[in-house]
Amino acid sequence: MKSFLLYFILFTTFCFSQEAEHYKTKEFDVAIFPETYKELLPEKRFTPTHENITEAELALRTKLEDLNYLLTHQSNSPVIHKNLSKYLRQYFGYIDENGNRILIINCFWKNVDKMAKKLWLKDRITVRDGGSFYWNVKYNLDTGELFDLEVNGNA
């Protein structure tokens, strides 16, 4: 774990970024980014609602294990679907080319990096390497599909 802190962390800060809404329940702790947040998102964006987040969080609890069957980059770091409560999550909404409302769910381990925890309500946390301490997935609000799981590699 200590060597993990040595990984190079990239934080993107844009002058036009806006602070996210902090939405915390007993089950999850998330940042909801407004549609005006532009970094790494398609042109058509929307601000996720609390209802959207609740729906996506249910999908994480019920569908992530099946999507994570390969356990990519999780042999020496946490198995993500068994440790959901230990991750902070950032939510970004966009509309795809078919008109579907898609949520990008960007996740990172709560107690890994103090700098990330300070910035998580301001900008998307982007990290190189880090294994399953950092991962993201997409959720289609219109079809209920959880897809495109990406778990960071190990250095």
How is this fold's topology laid out?
Elements: E1 9-11, E2 21-24, E3 29-32, E4 45-46, H1 50-67, E5 87-95, E6 101-109, H2 114-119, E7 125-127, E8 134-140, E9 146-151
Parallel strand pairs: 3-5
Antiparallel strand pairs: 1-7, 2-3, 4-5, 5-6, 6-8, 8-9
Notes on the structure:
The chain has 155 residues and is α+β, with helices and mostly antiparallel strands. Helix content is 15%, strand content 30%. It contains two helices and nine strands. The protein has helices spanning 50-67, 114-119, and strands at 9-11, 21-24, 29-32, 45-46, 87-95, 101-109, 125-127, 134-140, 146-151. A hairpin with a 5-residue loop joins β5 (87-95) and β6 (101-109). The radius of gyration is 15 Å and the shape is globular.
Looking at this protein, list some descriptive labels.
single chain; 155 residues; alpha+beta; seven-stranded mixed β-sheet; two-stranded antiparallel sheet; 2 helices; 9 strands; 15% helix; globular; disordered N terminus
Low-confidence stretches: 1-17
Q: Report the count of strand segments.
A: 9
Number of helices: 2
Helical/strand content category: alpha+beta
Strand content: 25-35%
Order of helices and strands: EEEEHEEHEEE
Overall shape: it is globular
Roughly how many Å is the radius of gyration?
A: 15 Å
Average residue-wise pLDDT: 87
Q: Span from first to last CA?
A: 13 Å
Helix content: 10-25%
Characterize the largest beta sheet: strand count, sense, and whether it forms a barrel: 7 strands, mixed
